[in-house]
Amino acid sequence: MANLNGRARRKNTYDAIVVGSGITGGIAAKELTEKGLKVLVLERGPMVRHLEDYPTATLDPWQTKYPQGQLPQAELAAHYPVQRRTGYTMTEHTQHFFVRDDEHPYTEENRFDWIRGYHVGGRSLTWGRQSYRHSPIDFEANAREGIAVDWPIRYEDLAPWYDHVERFIGVSGQAEGLPHFPDGQYQPPMELNCVEKAFKARSEARFPERRVTIGRTAHLTDPTEEQLSLGRTKCQYRNLCIRGCPFGAYYSSNSGGLIAAERTGNLVIRPNSIVTELIHDERKGRASGVRILDAETLKDEEFHADVIFLCASALNSAWIMMNSTSSRFPNGFGNASDQLGRNVMDHHLGVGASGEAPEFADTYFSGRRPNGIYVPRFRNLGDAATKRSDYLRGFGYQGGAGRATWERDRGKGGRGFGAARKAELSQPGAWTMGLGGFGEMLPYADNRVTLNRDVKDKFGLPTLTMNVTMRDNEMAMRRDMQSAAAEMLEAAGFKNVRGHDNGFAPGLGIHEMGTARMGRDPKTSVLNAHNQVHECKNVYVTDGAAMTSASCVNPSLTYMALTARAADHAVRARKRGEL
Amino acid sequence: MLNRRDALRGLALTVGAAATGWAGTAAATTALSWTPTALTPEQAQILDVVSELIIPATDTPGARAAGVPQFIDRAMANYCEKWQIDQLTAGFARMDADAKAAHGKLFVALAPEQQVAILNVYDRETAASTSGHFFPLLEDFVTVGYFTSEPGATMALKYDPVPGAYNGCVPLAEIGRAWATR
After folding, report:
1. In this complex, is the C-beta atom of B59 within 8 Å of any C-beta atom belonging to chain A?
2. Would you call B127 and A413 a contact, using CB atoms and an 8 Å cutoff?
3. Per-residue three-class SS string for A366-383
4. Does residue A137 have a pLDDT over 50?
5. Average pLDDT of chain B?
6. Beta bridge partners of A304
7. What percent of chain B has pLDDT over 70?
8. At a CB cut-off of 8 Å and minimum separation 6, what does A48 contact?
9. What is the DSSP pairing of strand A286-294 with strand A273-281?
10. Taxonomically, which superkingdom (chain B) (predicted)?
């Protein structure tokens, strides 16, 4: 028996375990395997293989079961009451990349839009791909303003890892030379269209501090040898990214990190493996592995490793840690600070302005650019000119110009019908330009998720309870986000300029952060400067859970840079025998 | 303000059709080339005619050639909500009732000018308020069905599945038509 157990244990033993296969899990797998470690990636959902498992990627508009691929209301209401809240994720073309809410419930003490995909690649298949660096002022803000705790790192600590990740994933964009909006390693930028070019020229003439640039996006425009060798090639401008890209043109874990990791021969991916807890070895004072529930056989199993990377997404990494109680960690794994599950952040959006540009009626574009424009933060940059008295931090705008399609005036009636209407709709409609704000949300200790043992998911596992709300700072910022956008469009001479605030509930930014924050002091933070759990050094948490503050830029690139940096640290520490 | 029936009566006079009693047949229409699932054969005949009136064949195929009636029948069978089905079928019934009131014939038996005149009344009615009117719903299904069909997307509009490049500023005259997809 002892021998058998020993063999079973060896069979299930790796150098490192990575929990989750999404945007950070893929990078962890790549970095650790390339540095020679035998790595097991555990993914709670089913396998999605690049190319093979993108069933809708090449369907034409007429190849749908339902009108425009829209799912029937009854199906949405029964299975996707949360996932449908984005308005764009739940279609015939995308539903296989999102969870069924009825199988994965949670409790909303306050509305929280938790948009998720449980499968190999996770949300790296469906992300927005906007890739920005956090800036020096983002890492310093908490300390300067006395908010939450200080980041234990500064921009310079992460800069080389941003370089490293950008070179691997491939980011197209325009260098702008702004100190609060650091440039990176960019492939050629995508083009602005004629209305965006005019908007940039006119708005910048009036507001020079509000730079208008093309979005920095993880799409190849001039692939490197390394990217080509992985089977990736340049963007074909189909703009069907969310279905999975058969060209490997945008970065996903499936087309990038996992393929690079597989190529080393050091990778094992085990899908359908729900990690339920970290196993703590009291004797050695470290984590010895993880316990999983096999989603197909419903059997428990254990896997062991020297190094464990939690890359399960902010809320799920927190869930695993909260569910990992032991005599050493009665309140959750590494939770002496009581910060686990707290400080939940997102980016608040759904506010901005739009206007029309009738003077460009005889111009058009060709190709479908999967990218828009970006206006980097221009408030509270540390000088008197940009200082706001009504709120802290800032926001950026994402948006763009396009022409109305045949879908304009849908369902309104009174527009006539017949040959004239057909001819009218066969031509493009008005040029419209929109700006939508992405605002920084501050870390509040009582914006938190907690483990709920009363409500169980379909596997009988405990669930989360969300208690996250917007506060005065965010609401004051939103007013400015709306009026400053309208101001820019008006300055650029756009017609019918209209501001909007459609409201926002946390979660819908799909940028959950902060449940196991980094910090300098184990008494007030969960992770140290290398993303190690303060109280258990061989467990690293490198997804959004680690974020100490949110910045206002899209966070995935930062998660990836933190992951690559932590992987480097882990391999060195392991060699030194520290783990 | 005229009510709907007065409007239709006036319209009947305008087009010079006499109320000659119930025609009762769909003699003016061609036989359907497909078998409806959700609709009765009579409803499918009306849908076939009205779809083509909403998006007629011009220099590009119309709704009928694009299979729009089949698209809507399929939607009614596996996609629409009950209120939509009720509204559409009530709409078809109203079209026949109004045709009969004005001209004494079923909708499909009217001359195209008479049919258009009836639809114009509906379109005007919906200009002020859309709530509960079947016509915008029907028109929307026809429009969606048409512009997402292969003939609609590739001939009435311009479709390029793999553009390969993005050009941000091109004279509209060079493209000629609106792109089918965004």
Report:
1. no
2. yes
3. ECCCCCCEEECCCCCCCC
4. yes
5. 87
6. A13, A289
7. 82
8. A97, A119, A120, A121, A125, A244, A254
9. antiparallel
10. Bacteria
pLDDT of B18 > 70? The answer is: no
DSSP assignments along A349-417, one per residue: -SEEEEEE-GGGTTEEEES--S--EEE---S-SSSTTT--SS-SS-EEEEEEEEE--TTTTTTT--S--
CB A383 within 8 A of CB A179: no
Q: Is A460 left (phi over 0), alpha (psi -120 to 50) or beta?
A: left
Number of domains in chain B: 1
Domain with CATH 3.50.50.60 in chain A: 11-129+244-340+448-457+512-576
- The CATH number corresponding to A11-129+244-340+448-457+512-576 among 3.40.640.10, 3.20.170.40, 3.50.50.60, 3.40.50.300 equals 3.50.50.60
H/E run at residue A280:
strand A273-281
The gap from C-alpha A508 to its chain's centroid, in whole angstroms, comes to: 11
Mean pLDDT confidence for A2-8 = 59
Q: Which residue of A has its CA nearest to B151?
A: A62
In A, which residues are within 8 Å of B145 by CB distance? 67
Convert the pLDDT of each residue in A333-348 to its tens digit: 999 999 999 999 999 9
Question: B80 to chain A nearest CA, in Å?
Answer: 7
Nearest C-alpha neighbor of B45 from the set B102, B115, B104, B101: B115
* Cβ separation A68–B167 shorter than 8 A: no
User: How far off is chain A from B147, nearest CA to CA, in Å?
Assistant: 8
Q: How far is A100 from chain B (nearest CA, A)?
A: 19
Q: Is the pLDDT of residue B5 over 50?
A: no
Decide if B174 is inside a domain: no
Range of the domain at B93: 41-157
Residue A68 to residue B148, Cβ atoms within 8 A: yes
